[in-house]
Design goal:
alpha+beta, four-stranded antiparallel β-sheet
Length: 103
């Protein structure tokens, strides 16, 4: 299944900058691992409001919850998950499965 995940980070005011930097570095490494495992397909930043949109793949919403919950910044995230289904007019539907990530 694919999921659109929208989130924004809200770092508590009293958090030391060293902790923020360490978590951001760990988050980058965790995101790279999710890419390697085929779970994180794309990521975008919305201009103007700091929100991030990610396209994720997981076997279930429960698995996705586990993947997101393991992220170093998760406790500072406000997350909204939208499960996605194929649409009959999707232009990628005519592409071979490997080209569109096995959907």
């Amino acid at each position: 299944m694919e999921f659109l995940v929208e989130f924004e980070i809200d770092v508590p005011d009293e958090t030391p900058e060293s902790e923020v930097s360490a978590r951001e570095a760990a988050e980058a490494a965790a995101a790279a691992k999710l890419v390697d495992e085929g779970h994180l397909l794309r990521v975008w930043k919305r201009p103007g409001d700091g929100k991030v949109l990610g396209l994720y793949r997981a076997d279930s919403e429960a698995q996705l919850d586990g993947l997101l919950g393991a992220l170093p910044l998760y406790e500072w995230m406000h997350v909204d998950v939208t499960p996605l289904e194929l649409h009959p007019n999707d232009p990628a539907a005519d592409q071979p499965s490997a080209d569109r990530g096995g959907r």
